């Protein structure tokens, strides 16, 4: 290595150390704020959904305009994930998908609005490890989908379909504008909530950004606009937690995978995600589960990708937990 390259590598390592120290000595803001963007980029053609995203919705995400004199009923919708394929199986494990329904009194037309992954949950939670691309390749966009109709049996048979409010057409139009703005600036799906421990006073390191979070944000916006929301049943939502000590910032793709000085870290991140690759045989999957257990539980570490940056989580018991907990309406 020539002198100039050595100086660059040393400088980079010192810079990462300073950044890590800065983020870990109390000046880092927790939870890490979800990054917003000024527009939604085109999805990479490599990312291909097994089931197409929002097949019956407007291609540009437009939401119909409602007359100010209209009265719009608002419905809380909830159903087991992949209910169309597995029925209520995942519902027994409290793995639920959430959405919002609307009905115009003037036209009698029903609508469904939900926010979910463009390329299915696995692609948002873990990357692809591609031989021709050194950095892990992520297909982690999520977006809002608005379409005509409410499939009553889909939502009510194994889940929830409950009227929770009435709003005016003007309130609906204001909400619709907010949804479109929110959709353009919040572009990536995040599966994990990361806490310091399961207790009520735990430090929140990272918050998830998923279907239920979109529903909560929309409910809060409706409340800001004057809507009165109420439910006769407990409003429970699926949450998936990781538990760790204080996370350490590592860097983004260019700093980690574009610098020879950080080759060992880059290789370790690729190795960490390798067990979670898609389309594995049963035998490979069994081996991969053992590898994942070794990394997360025995070695106590996890690499989190958040805001298009990598963080190291020093894992601690109970390591991971899925809950079905109440989040009251605003």
Annotation keywords:
11 strands, 330 residues, globular, 5-stranded antiparallel β-sheet, 6-stranded mixed β-sheet
Task: Provide an overview of this structure.
This protein has 330 residues and is of the alpha+beta class. Helices cover 32% and strands 26% of the residues. It is built from ten helices and eleven strands. It has helices spanning 3-24, 83-86, 89-92, 121-125, 152-156, 169-185, 211-224, 253-257, 263-273, 282-298; strands spanning 71-80, 96-104, 110-117, 142-148, 160-168, 193-195, 204-206, 236-244, 248-251, 301-306, 309-326. Strands 6, 7, 8, 9, 10 and 11 form a six-stranded mixed sheet that branches. Strands 4-3-2-1-5 form a five-stranded antiparallel sheet. Strand 6 (193-195) and strand 7 form a beta hairpin. It is globular, with a radius of gyration of 22 Å. The chain starts with a helix and ends with a strand.
């Amino acid at each position: 290595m020539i002198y100039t390259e050595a100086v660059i590598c040393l400088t980079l390592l010192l810079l990462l150390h300073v950044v890590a120290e800065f983020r870990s000595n109390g000046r880092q803001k927790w939870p890490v704020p979800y990054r917003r963007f000024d527009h939604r980029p085109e999805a990479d053609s490599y990312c291909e959904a097994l089931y197409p995203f929002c097949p019956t919705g407007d291609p540009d995400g437009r939401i119909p305009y409602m007359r100010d004199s209209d009265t719009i009923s608002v419905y809380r919708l909830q159903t087991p994930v992949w209910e169309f394929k597995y029925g209520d199986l995942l519902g027994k494990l409290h793995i639920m998908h959430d959405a919002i329904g609307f009905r115009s009194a003037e036209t009698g037309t029903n609508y469904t609005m939900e926010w979910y992954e463009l390329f299915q949950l696995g692609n948002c939670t873990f990357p692809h490890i591609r031989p021709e691309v050194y950095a892990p390749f992520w297909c982690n966009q999520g977006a809002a989908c608005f379409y005509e109709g409410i499939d009553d049996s889909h939502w009510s048979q194994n889940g929830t379909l409950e009227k929770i409010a009435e709003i005016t057409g003007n309130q609906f139009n204001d909400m619709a504008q907010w949804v479109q703005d929110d959709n353009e600036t919040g572009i990536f799906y995040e599966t994990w909530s990361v806490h310091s421990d399961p207790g009520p006073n735990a430090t929140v390191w990272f918050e998830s950004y998923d279907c239920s979070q979109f529903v909560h944000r929309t409910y809060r916006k409706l409340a800001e606009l004057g809507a009165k929301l109420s439910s006769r049943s407990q409003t429970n939502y699926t949450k998936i937690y990781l538990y760790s000590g204080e996370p350490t910032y590592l860097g983004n793709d260019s700093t980690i995978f574009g610098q020879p000085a950080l080759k060992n870290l880059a290789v370790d991140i690729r190795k960490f995600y390798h067990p979670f690759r898609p389309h594995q045989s049963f035998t490979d999957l069994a081996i991969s589960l053992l590898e994942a257990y070794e990394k997360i539980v025995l070695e106590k570490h996890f690499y989190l990708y958040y805001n298009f940056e990598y963080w190291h989580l020093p894992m601690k018991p109970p390591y991971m937990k899925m809950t079905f907990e109440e989040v009251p309406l605003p």
